[in-house]
């Protein structure tokens, strides 16, 4: 099974590169055939580090020469829609990094390309694939039917982040809440806090959801801490997820379960911040493994395709971006 990668930047080298190398080492059927980057020397370094066989500077040339079974697209956000659409139109299964387009127009471009051939694909929303999230979701499903969920709250805090548009990080929380609730967004309200320089320092978001539940979000990019926490509530059960996101203080993560007003159970994840492999705890290994398994088993579910499923996530995230940025600059750029 030939896998090729487009994009060999710092994020790819920290997360997807080691994840794919580990998968290839465990499964001899997986061949890391080639990697492409517009900076050829970066592709060559990525190849040496993770065991890819060949390098390219032009992705079209690579796709023609390699005829891969699957593509992992790890390019910059400004290139995701154009390159992703080209891969989907070729009918080559695709794992693409978030966001799936910087705005609704770019997402629509990807969606149209997918619908031409119903090409199998996954979006790399890595929080969905964190072992902690998978375990918490299974546990919650055992205890609470989806229709009994009342609310999901998501808090993303960062220290000294001065991104002009924090929505490229916020989209992870927006997607994760919908994923955990097994719901889509119906309506939303947004309010912002800015500092004396005019920078957005906090985003408060409320969203209604199908099924009658709601989601609340607080994104603080200039705070005294760095963490990501999710809180789920029903009438008798509540759960807190302390996510082991890269660069945050909750590694290796913890699940806290409550019942009828009292603490029921604490579930710490194994390891510590020094010994844990970030690509494993952070979900990057498991999202790549899910992509490989999809290729092997040919079990892509077109009834729940990611590019169609995230329509409401894209709509809410674009509204957050539009609230932050001046008119004409709302492209969900980092």
TrEMBL record:
Keyword tags: Oxidoreductase
A single GO molecular function term of this UniProt record: oxidoreductase activity
Pfam family membership, one: GFO_IDH_MocA
Family annotation (Gene3D superfamilies): Dihydrodipicolinate Reductase, domain 2, NAD(P)-binding Rossmann-like Domain
Domain (Gfo/Idh/MocA-like oxidoreductase N-terminal) ranges: 2-114
InterPro entries linked: Gfo/Idh/MocA-like_OxRdtase_N, Gfo/Idh/MocA_oxidrdct_glycsds, NAD(P)-bd_dom_sf
Name the UniProt record assigns to this protein: Gfo/Idh/MocA family oxidoreductase
The organism of origin for this protein: Victivallis lenta
């Amino acid at each position: 099974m030939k896998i090729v990668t487009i994009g060999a930047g710092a994020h790819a080298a920290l997360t997807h590169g080691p994840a794919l190398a580990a998968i290839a080492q465990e499964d001899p059927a997986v061949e890391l055939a080639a990697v492409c980057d517009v900076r050829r020397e970066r592709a060559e370094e990525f190849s040496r580090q993770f065991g890819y066989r060949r390098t390219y500077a032009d992705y079209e040339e690579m796709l023609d020469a390699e005829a891969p079974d699957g593509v992992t697209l790890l390019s910059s956000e400004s290139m995701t829609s154009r390159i992703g659409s080209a891969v989907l139109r070729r009918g080559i299964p695709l794992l693409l990094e978030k966001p799936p387009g910087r705005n609704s127009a770019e997402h629509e471009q990807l969606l149209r390309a997918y619908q031409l051939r119903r090409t199998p694909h996954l979006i790399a929303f890595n929080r969905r694939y964190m072992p902690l999230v998978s375990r918490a979701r299974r546990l919650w499903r055992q205890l609470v039917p989806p229709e009994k969920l009342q609310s999901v709250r998501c808090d993303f805090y960062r220290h000294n982040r001065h991104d002009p548009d924090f929505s490229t990080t916020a989209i992870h929380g927006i997607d994760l809440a919908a994923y955990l609730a097994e719901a889509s967004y119906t309506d939303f309200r947004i309010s912002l806090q800015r500092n004396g320089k005019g920078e957005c320092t906090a985003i408060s978001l409320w969203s209604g959801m199908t099924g009658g539940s709601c989601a609340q979000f607080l994104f603080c990019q200039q705070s005294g801490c760095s963490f990501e926490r999710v809180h789920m509530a029903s009438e008798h059960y509540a759960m807190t997820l302390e996510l082991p996101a890269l660069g945050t203080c909750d590694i290796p993560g913890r699940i806290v379960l409550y019942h009828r007003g009292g603490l029921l159970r604490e579930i710490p994840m194994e390891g510590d911040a020094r010994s844990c492999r970030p690509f494993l705890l952070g979900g990057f290994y498991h999202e790549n493994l899910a992509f490989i398994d999809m290729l092997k088993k040919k079990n892509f579910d077109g009834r729940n395709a990611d590019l169609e499923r995230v329509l409401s996530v894209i709509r809410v995230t674009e509204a957050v971006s539009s609230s932050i940025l001046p008119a004409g600059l709302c492209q969900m750029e980092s």
